[in-house]
């Protein structure tokens, strides 16, 4: 009996290590205890200090490290040792660029304005919004799209299937408020930060609040336009 239980445990361990297919997002891993703070000054020290409202002197301090570490922990950036490195600054820089967009996300006119209601996804800025012609209906909101090797595919698409309580039948991964627009790729909510690297397995992740709003505003047959290129892909 003990041998059978051990074999089952091993099998479960192997299954748990499989990579989710395109479009699925794994649940957030349990929060890990923060490691000891690093005393090293990072290459983006001054920029990170300024972003966090710390004294900008370009020198790592214990207070600097704790502030950086808290930011890293909040957004799932690893290792979360308080080092002002390229990944941490990349997230902050993206946040600043998103904020600069304001209420005019289609300023460049790249998302079609002749389709009526359409959901736009700008991969470069990791933003999405819904517009009707030139009128902004909702957003822009931050999103989390496909990581390197699992990129969210670009182009004009249509929502073809919606499932408010969708769960992967293979991996049992919940994908609430799913609205599929390209194969296994869909809008859906997740329980991780929108700035959690490296990204999804192809879906356009959203917060629950935004995914619910998209669910109420969109329907089967509505257009979706995905363009740009996610940093790091």
Automatic annotation (TrEMBL):
Signal peptide (from-to): 1-33
One of the record's GO molecular function terms: transferase activity
GO cellular component, one term: extracellular region
Origin: domain of life: Bacteria
GO biological process: cell wall organization; peptidoglycan-protein cross-linking; regulation of cell shape
Pfam families (UniProt xref): YkuD (PF03734)
Pathway where it operates: Cell wall biogenesis; peptidoglycan biosynthesis
Database matches in InterPro entries: LD-transpeptidase, LD_TPept_cat_dom, PGBD-like_sf, TAT_signal, Transpep_catalytic_dom
Keywords annotated in UniProt: Cell shape, Cell wall biogenesis/degradation, Peptidoglycan synthesis, Signal, Transferase
Active site: 188, 203
Record-annotated L,D-TPase catalytic domain positions: 116-227
Cited Gene3D superfamilies: L,D-transpeptidase catalytic domain-like
Protein name in the entry: L,D-TPase catalytic domain-containing protein
């Amino acid at each position: 009996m003990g041998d059978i239980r051990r074999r089952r445990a091993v099998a479960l361990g192997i299954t748990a290590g499989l990579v989710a297919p395109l479009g699925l997002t794994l649940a957030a891993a349990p929060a890990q205890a923060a490691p000891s703070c690093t005393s090293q000054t990072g290459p983006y020290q001054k920029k990170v200090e300024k972003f966090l409202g710390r004294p900008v002197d370009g020198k790592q301090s214990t207070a600097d490290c704790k502030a950086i570490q808290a930011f890293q922990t909040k957004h799932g950036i690893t290792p979360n040792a308080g080092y002002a490195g390229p990944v941490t600054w990349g997230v902050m820089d993206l946040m600043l660029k998103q904020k600069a967009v304001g209420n005019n996300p289609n300023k460049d006119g790249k998302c079609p304005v002749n389709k009526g209601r359409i959901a736009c996804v700008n991969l470069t800025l990791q933003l999405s919004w819904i517009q009707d012609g030139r009128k902004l209906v909702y957003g822009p909101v931050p999103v989390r799209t496909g990581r390197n090797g699992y990129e969210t595919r670009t182009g004009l698409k249509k929502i073809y299937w919606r499932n408010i309580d969708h769960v992967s039948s293979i991996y049992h991964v919940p994908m609430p408020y799913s609205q599929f627009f390209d194969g296994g790729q869909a809008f859906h909510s997740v329980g991780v930060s929108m700035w959690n690297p490296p990204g999804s397995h192809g879906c356009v992740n959203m917060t629950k609040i935004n995914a619910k709003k998209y669910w109420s505003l969109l329907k089967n047959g509505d257009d979706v336009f995905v363009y740009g290129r996610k940093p790091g892909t």
